[in-house]
What does this fold into?
Amino acid sequence: MATTTASRRDAPATVLAATVGFGLLLGWATYDLHGSSPLLERATNSVSTWIIWTAVAGALIRARQLAVWGGALMMLATCGGYYGASALGDTFGAGGLGTAAVWSVAGVAGGPLLAWAGWTVRRGQGDVRAVAGAAIPMVVLGERSGWGWRSTTGERRPSF
It folds into this structure.
């Protein structure tokens, strides 16, 4: 006979705390590992890393609503981890607060969609599963083509 009580690891506070913790770690790692090797340069020089891990987190969370909230919190925490590490590394800069705010708003808006997509790919059925599966690479490609083609000096650069 199956038990009707949920395990402690499925408790909303535990799940959301884990996504926030992972988001902070991901933000710090993105900042700290950037430029340390050619492979890590590619892996950390875009928001694509955050996009993919947010979708993975959504796939790992069992409840859809919790996955959506977890996606928003994870992206917000990732921005906090990245810009917090930037401030501690004395590279935050004068425009850092505005940039941090823009990316935080974008993360809170996009995080739920990405986590839902990850959740739906793992647990959905039918056409919605295929649409959710297509949403993740579309966001990655959109981010890379839109933001990745211009450097801070305005010159074109390759995305990968």
